[in-house]
Design goal:
Blueprint lengths: L6 E6 H11 L4 E4 L6 H13 L3 E4 L3 H13 L4 E5 L1 H17 L3 E7 L16 H6 L8 E3 L4 H18 L2 E7 H5 L1 E6 L60 H16 L2 H4 L2 E4 L6 E4 L2 H16 L4 E6 L1 E3 L3 H8 L4 E6 L4 H12 L5 E6 L8 H14 L1
Parallel strand pairs: 2-3, 2-4, 4-5, 5-7, 6-7, 10-11, 10-13, 13-14
Antiparallel strand pairs: 1-8, 6-12, 9-11
Helix pairs in contact: 1-2, 1-6, 3-4, 10-13
Length: 387
Amino acid sequence: MSIENKRVRLMQGNEACAEGAIAAGANFYAGYPITPATEVAEVLAKRMPEVGGRFIQMEDELACMGAIAGASLVGAKSLTATSGPGFSLMQENLGWASMAEAPCVIVNVQRGGPSTGLPTLAAQGDVMQAKWGTNGDHPVIALSPSTVKEMFDLTIECFNYAEKYRVPVILLTDAVLGHLREEVELPDPAEIKIINRKKPTVPPEEYLPFAGDEDGVPPMANLGEGYRYYVSGTLHDEKGSNAAADTKVAERIIGRLLDKIERNRNDIIRYQAEDVENAEVIVLAYGCVARSARQAVSKARKDGLNVGFFRPITMWPFPDQELLKAVGNAHTVIVPEMNNGQYAGEVARALHDGGKSAKVTRLTEISCNLIHPERILAGIREAANNG
């Protein structure tokens, strides 16, 4: 096919994210401007009306999260985009959306922190916040792109997971990818896989809004379609009735919320593994740092070093079994990341629990400078010499 017939565009990462949302069928955006995520809002302020959707600038990020959760309940495919400080403000209503099982997408374009931090520079400091930011045990899915094309593709996947499993889903990206421009070939819309939420097949009087099917996920009737039910962040039973003091209901409902993700992890987990078979050293990296890591691994292999590359695309749930298989008998796992070792700690836990003796080497960066391939290459050489 000639390039004239391809849907090839030079796109910024945040623009690709916005277009991915439109391609997924998103029709509601509520946001508040924040560097380095504002371009997502700028694009959708124009694009949402063009596709019959709605765009609202809210008064703050707490309200943004409440708005997209509420819009989801009436049938919208909804999203918001923010960065670290705004993501912090969203946590309370993100927990509410988890309890209410309101499918929606939160885009977090990470920047330096804590607090206001370095607003214009990239970081990866929200990794653990994405998992544990809101209170209580709750289900979470978080995906991490490393190219502009993946900003488009994984935004669609975020919506598909949200709709399929009735859960808020996080696109955990960063300022490098948000502002990077790359050539992207967009797929034919007819070829894009779109998943929509299950609808009830029983009459309204028999509908249980929080009773899971065999996959653990309840069918979802949109409010206003004749199915009247109560939605609350308080612990509720399968009917939605308040059950705040019933510990047996708590065990049943919270258990199902967690189980609907765990039992479907094979569908949710995505990763990339290259040259890991019989590798002595594995480099594990995600997001923007994965770009540097792949270059370093490629150079190391040209130099004759036996090194492999592993990239978690699904950050949460953590890809335990996939990592264990990739590590094999490697003696060292190097984890470069733009924080003080948040994901490296999870890697060490997984290896220990899986009976692996591989050493986990943290290669951290808290200055908001992108980790250079040469620094990772130096770590590979040191590990190979000390193996």
